[in-house]
Amino acid sequence: MISCLILPKVAYQLKHLEQEKHELRRRFENREGEWEGRVSELESDVKQLQDELEKQHVHLREADREKTRAVQELSEQNQRLLDQLSKIRY
């Protein structure tokens, strides 16, 4: 008789636990999908920032080359002017 009373209660609890498990799994899958989407967005942002950083490095290297070239040209021009000045003095 006790088992007849316990069995329906256990069956009800089991059904309730299965429903709760199903709900938790659904919520987990939703969250997992949200996080996967967010991770994808962040990976895209990282790629975009890496590309932008590379462009900035390229521009910086170009600016350094231009600066070096300008310094070299000015040094050569200064040397020519010094040579001309020394010729004029003597």
TrEMBL record:
Residues 14-80 form a coiled coil. One of its GO terms (biological process) is Golgi to secretory granule transport. This is Bicaudal D-related protein 1. Keywords: Coiled coil.
